[in-house]
Amino acid sequence: MTLPSASVETVSKGRLQLSEFPRVARRHPLIFVGGGLLALFIILALAAPLYAGDPLNMNPFERLQPPSANFWFGTDNLGRDVFARTIFGARISLMVGLTSAAGAALGGLLIGLVAGYNRAFDNVIMRVMDGLMSIPTILLAIALISLTGPSIGTLIVAITIVQLPSVTRLVRSVVMSVQQRPYVEAALCGGARLPKVLWRHLLPSTVPALMVQSAIVCADAILTEAGLSFLGVGVPPEIPSWGNMISSSRLYLAIAPMTVFAPGICLAATVLAINLLGDGLRDLFDPRSKRRR
User: Fold this and answer.
1) Is residue 89 within 8 Å of residue 245, measured between CB atoms?
2) Strand partners for 75
3) CA nearest to 84, candidates 117, 58, 107
4) What distance in Å separates the CA atoms of residue 145 and residue 138, rounded to the nearest whole number?
5) What is the pTM of this model?
6) pLDDT tens, residue by residue, 162-187
7) Alpha carbon distance 81, 55 (integer Å)
8) Hey, CA dihedral for 247, 250, 252, 258, is it positive or negative?
């Protein structure tokens, strides 16, 4: 999902004022629906120790219990509270998704600025990015885990490396289109130093597209973490995560469906919220959508 270079002018004209929020909400409801749902998951995850029980506490006498007042989502095959594990699992998924998106955005921004502005490094950098795009996430994660052992940090590094090329290519395309504009050429002819041109003219131009792409990367990272954990090569089994929960409970789906449905529904809702937020940001920064309206 890429944005036209004209979207830069939409943002650079000024900041969004508080009085403009009702108008933005009417024209771009996806931003508030997706952002509100995502904010709800973040708040629930951060406040989990205040209201959720111990996700690691096992009680063999309470195995595979149905939902009740004591266990809102029931218990799993080891007698652990599914509600507590689902809430604490949101911490893992959101941390992996947000951290991977931030790492890919920062790295892709720096590399894309250099590749888009300096043609001497462009071919070398983009060939490296093409090579990284050919590496499947699962294979890279397995390779890193075999060297360092399973951990959340290793999983974040693997996802960030795989997502880096898409962000780099997007930033590069925006920079290459913006650097031909008269105000950038005027700044260079006026004696502006390269760091100043990058910071004041090229960097702000990449922000709208980078925000949308970061949402896509975050959603993809959450799904990748869940898939890798489901396969047993992601988050260590002792750490509650949505992928681990679905993997360990799939054999008990017929007798305890909430052990699978609870993390699965939360996973789908979180990814949906991020995608809605990304689509809303795309519409907000795309001047063509405003003309259609």
Assistant:
1) yes
2) 81
3) 58
4) 10
5) 0.81
6) 888 888 888 888 777 776 666 565 65
7) 6
8) positive
